[in-house]
Structures are given as structure tokens and as C-alpha cells.
């Protein structure tokens, strides 16, 4: 699994000139994708059970603290100001509103509260109130996560000092495919922010989106990129595209759900000790597809009936499925 050609190095590794012990080549990841489904799930289960309780799923709740009006052109996103998605932009929420939502999420069983802002990068005047949100949410006894876009020098330090546990910043898609999806920043910009976060000892939440029209090879590259971060992210959200009317990807044909499950299984095998989060797209998924995702090693979800701007399964649907599967929510 460690062998890879020099050409592949360039495309799938995190700016590393040398093959590190334990690195995943794109070919090795692609081979996992090609396994017969039962063999893939068996391998994912073996890995999962070695490191986690296979019947426990962690829950994080999301809140969009600043919605819409984003300068970036991510072609999947409802919040880019470049597309007519009908979304109404909203300014930064007040501390009081955020705390009310955080307490409600805690009362419903979430262990982590993730605050998302539609910024390319937070300005200094934006960061101050977010720091206060982080420290106050933490006082409620919740883990904290924020996703604010690209960080400038010094900002990760301040987030760490406020008590931030996780920073979410996704690689989103394969390096070779990135510029077809986003042109206003690069995958190296994303990697830089992840480095800044990591260097302050903040845990990294980094994953991607599938169903953007990418091929299987691109999915393998995405997973290799994530698995080869050193160390792999503690939390790996795998999002299924939620098609948004008005965006360039509104009409992309839906990804085969079995291929989505394969992606989860490959993430589990290549990132054995990471939480793999079955993220956006659950509302559009059958209970049976979700069950296969848990079987493939997903052990985290977003709970609560809203993601950032789109719907998520409500508490009753999740509780019902967990009861049918004997899954304990943690
Ligand atoms: N602006 C920040 C950023 O880009 O990191 C934070 C918010 S952004 C909405 C967080 C992540 O949500 C994106 O990186 C992408 O993976 C995911 N996402 C956004 N729109 C999505 C959609 N329509 N379907 C699935 N995932 C989506
Ligand atoms: C992540 O990987 N997925 C979440 C969170 N990180 C911020 C966001 C999903 C957004 C789905 C589309 C929406 O609701 O706008
Ligand atoms: Fe902005 Fe993030 Fe949406 Fe891209 S994904 S348009 S950076 S909010």
C-alpha cells in the first residue's frame, strides 16, 4: 500500500517530496474502491471494531452563525453571492441567540456544537465575537467547532486561546478536479489553513463532498489526500452533494448510494482512528443507505433538523433508525 509512482506523488500527497511510512497511494485507495462490496465492508468493519465501539455514533449539531453573501464561487454552495439561490443573507448572530441554540442542541443530546460562517476568511472585527461564542458555548459543557473559511496568521492562536476544540476546513475534492468546482481559492490555500490549525493543537475536522460529478479516481484522490495529512484529521465529514437550485451543480446526476457507502468504507479503512462523519445528504438518503454507512464505519453525524441552509433528518427519524439498528447515540 505504500508504493506509488512519482507522478502520483504530485497529485495526491500533501506537498511531501518523500513517501512516508504508512502513506496511501492513490492506486492503493482506488483498489479499495474496486473491492467486491462484501469484502470492502468486511475490511471496514474489521478496522472499525479494532478502534471503536461499532454500535456507537457521536452527534454534532450545526448552526449557521453568519449566512450567505460569501465572496467565493464554490459551485455547490447555496451561500455564494455569485449564484441566485434565493437564500437570504443574514448578518452574524448575537451571542445570546447562539447560546440559546447551543443549549437546545445539548438538551437534545449533541456533544459538539459547530458554528459555521459563510466567509472567505474572517476579518478581525468578525473574529472577536466568534471568540466569545466559542468560550461561552464551551462553558455549557459542549465541545466546540467552528468553520470560518481561511485563517490568517495569528487567528488560529486566538481561537485556541478561546478554547476551541475543532476547526472544520474541508479539502472538498481531488486536487486535479478542484478548479472545476472552485476558482476563488486553491486546495493549497485549504491545506495552509489546516496547517495553521494543527500547529496550534486545535483538532482538525476535514473531509469533502462527493457527487459533484467527479469520477471514482477523484474520490480515491480525495481520500488519499485526507489520509495522508500527517496526522489524519480527527474528524472526517463525508458530504453527499445537496443539490441547490441556482448553483452550477444543481442538475448533476445523483451519485449511486452504493458508491457513497463505498466512500465511507474507504475513509474508515484508510483513517482507522478518525471519526468518519456521515454528513450532508442524509435527508435525501433512505434509512437503508444510512444503515449501510454505519456498517461501513461511519460513527458520527450531524443531528438537528437543519444543516447550515438545508434540511437534515429530524430527531425522531434519527432516533427511530438508531433504535432499529441498536445504535447508541453518544
Ligand atoms: N465557508 C467555510 C468553508 O468553506 O470552509 C465554511 C462553511 S462551508 C458551507 C462548509 C462545507 O460545507 C464545505 O466545505 C462543503 O464541504 C460543505 N457543503 C457546502 N455546501 C454543500 C452542499 N450543497 N452539499 C454538500 N456539502 C456542502
Ligand atoms: C461539513 O463538512 N458539512 C457541514 C459542516 N462541515 C459545516 C456543512 C454541510 C452543508 C450542507 C449544505 C447546507 O446546509 O448549506
Ligand atoms: Fe463560501 Fe464556504 Fe460556501 Fe465556499 S463553501 S461559497 S467558502 S460558504
Automatic annotation (TrEMBL):
Residue positions binding [4Fe-4S] cluster: 70, 74, 77
Note describing how the cofactor binds: Binds 1 [4Fe-4S] cluster. The cluster is coordinated with 3 cysteines and an exchangeable S-adenosyl-L-methionine. Binds 1 [2Fe-2S] cluster. The cluster is coordinated with 3 cysteines and 1 arginine.
Family the UniProt entry places it in: Belongs to the radical SAM superfamily. Biotin synthase family.
Any GO MF annotation of the entry: biotin synthase activity
Name this polypeptide is given: Biotin synthase
Names of the cofactor(s): [4Fe-4S] cluster; [2Fe-2S] cluster
UniProt-listed InterPro entries: Aldolase_TIM, BATS_dom, Biotin_synth/BioAB, Biotin_synthase, Elp3/MiaA/NifB-like_rSAM, rSAM, rSAM_sf
Top EC class of this enzyme: transferase
Residues that coordinate or bind [2Fe-2S] cluster: 114, 145, 205, 277
